[in-house]
Amino acid sequence: MSEREGVARLTRVAQPTSSSGLMSPVRPAGTPRTSYARRGLQPHTGVAKLTPKAAAVEEAARSLRQVMGRFATGVTVITTLHRDTIHGMTANAFLSVSLRPPLVLVSLGRCRMGEMLPHTKRYGVSVLAHDQGDFAAHFAAQQTSPVEPAFVWHEGLPLLEGALAHLVCKVIDVHAAGDHELWIGEVEHVHQRDGEPLLFYTGRFGTVRDLDEQS
To answer: Any residues with CB less than 8 A from the CB of 39 and at least 6 apart, and which?
Structure first.
């Protein structure tokens, strides 16, 4: 089958009005006139839609991932503290949202961090330096870092030591967006230093020089 083929489904439609030019929904034989009204539903009538094949959806997702991999970004480690345990994860889907008030967001898929934030309601952001690639892989669960990560603390929140920048954020909102959630944080504290950043490009961590040599 082609990518446009799939399963036809009927979607419920709003009750037609007298000015819509449409016929009223046909009530199935033997169904009481008031049964649909009581449930607040219309009969199964509407527009047939084709749901794309699972294979086509996965292929589109892979293609989008590859294309977005061409968008070079910095690398962050998101941290929080839950029940006296530090939890961290590598994320490049991080961005500034607003300056007044100071807001940022991190986009999370289904992960442990997303389960913890409703309880901790705070997260730290550490912008990694060029020599912290091992930590990026460590917190991405790709491989264990040969050096144990060390942390500095700000008002009870852990931040990765040696990072180029730190932000401490209070969760003020969360929005569902497809298979991810956008966690909006109000920035409570910032710190920065000079240095060369770690980059993420086409699925790899490195400096501009490293990535150029690898390609």
So the answer is: none
Q: Which domains does the chain have, with CATH numbers?
A: 18-68 (no CATH), 73-214 (2.30.110.10)
131 φ, ψ to 5°? -95, 15
Mean pLDDT, residues 157-177 taken together: 98
Closest CA to 88 of 113, 116, 108, 118: 113
Distance CA(78)–CA(160), nearest Å, equals 9
Residue 113 carries which side chain, given as an amino acid letter? M
Strands (E), 11-164: 48-52, 73-74, 76-82, 85-91, 94-98, 103-108, 122-127, 151-154, 157-160
Angle (CA) 153 155 158, round 5° = 30
159-92-155 Cα angle (round to 5): 20
**Chain-centroid distance, C-alpha 119:** 18
**Taking the model in full, what pTM does it have?**
0.70
* Residues 152, 158: Cα–Cα separation, whole Å: 6
- The edge-to-edge listing of strands for the beta sheet with 94-98 is 85-91, 76-82, 122-127, 165-177, 180-192, 103-108, 94-98
Helical H segments across the chain, by residue range:
35-39, 54-68, 112-120, 133-139, 208-214
* Tokens of residue 151, six digits: 């942390």
**CA 36 to CA 32: how far, in whole Å?**
8
Per-residue pLDDT tens over the stretch 16-58: 444 444 444 445 555 555 444 444 545 555 555 555 678 888 8
